[in-house]
Specification:
heterodimer, A: 306 residues, B: alpha/beta, 4-stranded antiparallel sheet, 10 strands, 38% helix, 25% strand, disordered C terminus
Amino acid sequence: MVANAQKSPPSPALARAENPPADYSAVRRVLASLALLILLGLLWEGIKAFAESTNYSLPIGSGAIDLTVFNDQQLPHLGAIFNAFLQPAQRNGPPLLQELIGASAFTLQMALVGFALGGIIGFLLAVLFAHSRLMQGGCLPYVVASQTVPILAIAPMIVIWMGQAGLREWSIPVIAAYLTFFPVVIYTLRGLTAVPPTAMELMQSYAANRWEILTKLRLPNALPHIFTALKLSATASVVGAIIGELPSGFQQGLGIAILNFARSYTQSPERLWATIVMSGVVGIGFFIVIVLIERLVVRWRRPEES
Amino acid sequence: MTAVISIKSLNKTFRGSDGAQVQALEDINLDIVRGEFISLIGPSGCGKSTLLRMIADLIEPSSGTLTVNGKPAAQARKDRDYGFVFQSPTLYDWRTIIKNVELPLEIMKYSKEEREQRASEMLQLVELSDFHHKYPWQLSGGMQQRVSIARALAFQPNILLMDEPFGALDEMTRERMNNELLRIWTAIPDMTVVFVTHSIAEAVYLSDRVVVLSPRPGRLAEIIDVPLPRPRGPETRDLDEYFHLTSRVRHALRGGTMEMQKVKVID
């Protein structure tokens, strides 16, 4: 028997509900992550300064450790990375930032379509598995196995198959979806099936049918789990789109930019770093959007839980 | 008096974790009449909750017959003849209080207006009218359980099945909830209540009859009539008859009637 009744007297609970204490936790969280960012920047520049002071060779005993990876050709100054955004990458071209924004728009668009595709497929599979033990037992191992195959091996095949099917423009979203459907299946299935036994008995006592149990119990119960999956999928879809661009033949996105700037790393490492920063911003931005949507949708939780 | 719930030669065996058959309930015979408040009491593991769940058709009996409102239990469940109150309030976290009370009405296809009206009435009955748009976590345990009673009564079943509903509450809250429950039971004519508890005081205070179950396998040890006057209130707990009845239940729980206990003492 589940005994989750609380023994708290009514008054504090109500006081909490009607006069919630001022919530500074969000401000504190932002400050903490900013502080961490500054700390990482100081560490970055500190290591570089230290390596330079030793002339990139740290003597230890009879030998020495080579510190040349920290020189300006291999690890640029943060200022240089920032500056790279403002300089044109090609002669007489637009500033790199403008180019990267264009590339991000393309990649994000591919990621969004892949995210939606993977999300819908993952959701439908989870609903199917939740209602059929046979399907769950038979198919779930293959779903898990699908993620052990390296995406780099599968991506070129998807490009070829989609191209032959006349859907070449869909190859990047499909590759992104390949990464994003998995967390959605796993977390949604967990949310749909991890229903408290008495909550299910309550539905049985009303002689509720499967559809009513799904829509009034399983799905709302799964929502917090689904959002956990969507947060994972959001960042995975950006990674998937970047990887998917490489064999796709499409040149507009962040993936190709990363590939090109990696080739010219020894001449201008700051451009690759700038592109990496941009990819990170896209992924984190997508993640934050999902978090905000979750706040709007999952409104019933205790403040301390969210 | 017609039997609302009629139980004949009911048996229940479970398959234990080691694969062996475990007899949970043995040869239960019991008729519960319309409008009666009846308690099932027994030590942990005596099968009292199992018996309640079989009346509710949430568990199937292994053998025997069980009718509710003159129908097989399964049919009574499909006809929504009873409301069930669990030990935990089992409110849906994502629904506001009024939406929780409306849940059975949604499933039973009541119109929106009727749902809102009935849910409001029920919340008034359990004196939680000011809490319509709160979420469950904003209410105390006792208040949550009152919501769950309101929900069980929202579609006006004439049978209320309660599985240790106040077991998780502190003594003070529990006594208040007992009075609340008696008030609600009195307010709805011909309402039959089957109440599972492990509290002797609670069983005697609330009931017309107390059914005492013996442990493993659960058998009917004794059925004790409680002729305490109604309406009952705090003064009821001071009556000599109340003390006498609680000790009768206690002796029955120990295994045997008072007379048998006396014989043993003389021996």
